[in-house]
Write a structure and sequence with these properties.
Elements lengths: L1 E12 L4 E12 L3 E6 L5 H9 L6 E9 L2 E2 L5 H7 L4 E4 L3 H4 L6 H12 L4 H14 L5 H5 L8 H15 L3 E5 L7 H18 L2 E5 L3 H7 L2 E6 L2 E7 H6 L4 H25 L10
Helix pairs in contact: 4-5, 4-7, 5-7, 7-8, 9-11
The structure holds adenosine-5'-triphosphate.
The site of adenosine-5'-triphosphate has 13 residues, from helix 1.
InterPro entries: AAA+_ATPase, ABC_Ni/Peptide_Import, ABC_transporter-like_ATP-bd, P-loop_NTPase
Subcellular location: Cell membrane
Protein name: ABC transporter ATP-binding protein
Length: about 280
Amino acid sequence: MSILKVKNLNIVDIKTGRVIVKNASFSVQEHACLGIVGESGSGKSITVREILGVNPRWIQSAGEIIFEGRNLLDENEKLRKSVRGKKISMILQDAMTAFNPIEKIGLQMRQTFMQLLKASKKEAEQMSLAGLKKMNFADPRKVYKSYPHELSGGMLQRCMIAIALVLQPSIIIADEPTTALDSINQLEVVKQFQYLKELSGTTLILISHDLGVVQRLADNVIVMKDGEIVEDGAAAAVFNEPKHPYTQYLVETRLQLSNSYTNSLQNGGEQEHDYSRAP
Ligand SMILES: Nc1ncnc2c1ncn2[C@@H]1O[C@H](COP(=O)(O)OP(=O)(O)OP(=O)(O)O)[C@@H](O)[C@H]1O
């Protein structure tokens, strides 16, 4: 069953008149992961930002984004704000900028749960610690009491996934969640996403230039090029029998590269990962 439907979405920069996304249509299946791949600048991020309603004012769109029976594009900011975070959450590429550098992680997690879930301070603390524990931190309380700069990029990314795990939104959008990480942390974050999918049956929209990551997580895939969806289908079909020449090119060049790299890491590097690095 589809949980979100995008129909004939056109996104225009009204300052320049440029059409950035052209007639994009796709649907997101409940409890599944939709991977969005494509070259840089093809319109992946701007599309998911339009779903959340966080593009700047000069970015205008036409078409439909149907969620819970409503076309979000017709709704006012109040309604869209009530969807953001609680029903559709976004995990960003750079976890460091997502957290306030001068506040401890625990305080920021707590505030999120107090605001979005109307939890008490005590409840919010328990939720935070439970979320961190599920993200495989050796010492969740120590992470809770840390400032962002005291944690690695991978750990911060796992804190963001922990927040999503607690909020249990209907959809989590992850925009290049592994790009800023080193390879060991990338593998760890992918594993946490797998866990999130299996544990809570979350619906995931995953943007990644790393086809290996998409292959591991996605059930369905759309391929974007120059603002258009050039291919759309089950992940196995898209990766094994790519139809569009651009997808064939992506699979030939990027997937093999990504997989041989990941395999070499899994065979050699994974045991080097030391959880005692958790503060
Ligand atoms: N706020 C904005 N104002 C004007 N143009 C924008 C804005 N954000 C993105 N664009 C333009 O829209 C196009 C698509 O950008 P988008 O960020 O969606 O690409 P992408 O496919 O996510 O690429 P990447 O993999 O590099 O993140 C680009 O040409 C970009 O310059």
